[in-house]
Design brief:
This protein is α/β, with parallel strands linked by helices. It has two domains: about 220 residues, Spore Coat Polysaccharide Biosynthesis Protein SpsA, Chain A; about 60 residues, no CATH class. The protein is built from seven helices and 21 strands. The strands form seven sheets. Strands 5-6-4-1-7-12-9-13 form an eight-stranded mixed sheet, with helices on both faces. Strands 15-18-21 form a three-stranded parallel sheet, with no helix packed on it. The longest helix is centred in the first third of the chain and has 13 residues. The radius of gyration is 20 Å and the shape is globular.
């Protein structure tokens, strides 16, 4: 089984952190996000992935010169221009010769969803594609997916207005697909899988979905990027990981609580850091107090001194 990972976006929601770094290469508790995504695929037997690249492909090529990550072979498909979600999938599949049954995942989604179960369910129904679903409190930012008792998708509603969603089960960004889906994607232009391809498949009755209550987070915003890391520290995903990098320096009089301190971070005397993520090279001045609650307006945990 092969997987296509969509990593070509500009990461605008995470600026300024992504001005020079693709969001999937941002660290999540000391390791690039993409490594955690690929590891979760490897657990379910994926042994080769195709990275659908657009923005700063050199960052991936330089990091993995042997084209291996978590024991998984990596291939690269670099878009000549932004092709949107479906266009990127079709381009990557053509570049890597992907046919038959394959998996597609969004590269900024961290999840413990059971991919093996999703594949089995897909094969049992004979679907052209099967979407993993997760429940959220506010579905207005996502693709909402009502299904019937057999799991067939009845509609695909992209970003419905607040209070008008037919369900709170949303597209979780992991798909099992057949090559017949690729034939629906016009070549040479941007094509949205959410707005064009999935609705057409719904009309033909060939799109299915499976609901999952497993851990899931779209780590593409400042808030979710922060919470995804604290979830790992808190053990919401496996065993808790050490939040402090070995080369981080914390003054004995400083207070650090429930926070991630990445490589080369310095916390000076009397400083207080709580519920925060300090990216590599950050410096907290003497006597400064954490203001993590202000991250929506000021990314104070970015590299630099505060």
């Amino acid at each position: 089984m092969r997987a296509i990972i969509l990593v070509g976006g500009f990461g605008t929601r995470l600026r300024p952190l992504t001005l020079s770094t693709p969001k999937q290469m941002l660290a999540v508790v000391h390791r690039p996000m993409i490594e955690r995504v690929i590891e979760s695929l490897a657990v379910h037997g994926i042994d080769e992935v195709v990275l659908s690249l657009g923005y700063r492909p050199d960052a991936f090529l330089d990091r993995y010169p042997d084209d291996q990550c978590a024991g998984v072979r990596m291939l690269y498909a670099v878009e000549p221009e932004p092709l949107d979600t479906a266009g990127a999938i079709a381009f990557a599949a053509a570049e890597a010769g992907v046919r038959g049954t394959f998996v597609v995942v969004n590269g900024d989604v961290l999840t413990d969803m059971d991919l093996t179960d999703l594949i089995a369910g897909h094969r049992a129904t004979g679907a052209e594609a099967t979407i993993s679903l997760t429940a959220v409190d506010d579905p207005s930012r996502f693709g909402v997916v009502p299904i019937d008792d057999a799991g067939r998708v009845e509609a695909f509603v992209e970003k419905p207005p607040v209070g008008e969603a037919p369900t709170n089960w949303i597209n979780a960004g992991t798909y099992v697909c057949e090559s017949a889906m690729l034939d629906r994607i016009p070549p040479g232009r941007p094509v949205s899988i959410e707005r064009e391809v999935f609705p057409a498949m719904v009309a033909d009755g060939v799109l299915y979905a499976r609901q999952s209550a497993a851990y899931w987070v779209d780590a593409g915003t400042p808030g979710t990027y922060l919470s995804a890391q604290l979830d790992i520290v808190d053990g919401r995903r496996g065993n808790p990981e050490d939040p402090v990098a070995p080369d981080a320096k914390i003054d004995a009089s400083a207070t650090v609580d429930h926070s991630v301190l990445m490589s080369r971070v310095v916390v000076a005397a009397g400083a207080v850091v709580r519920d925060s993520v300090l990216l590599p090279g950050s410096s907290v001045a003497a006597g400064a107090a954490s203001r993590a609650r202000c991250w929506e307006r000021e990314p104070l945990w970015a590299p630099g001194q505060w």
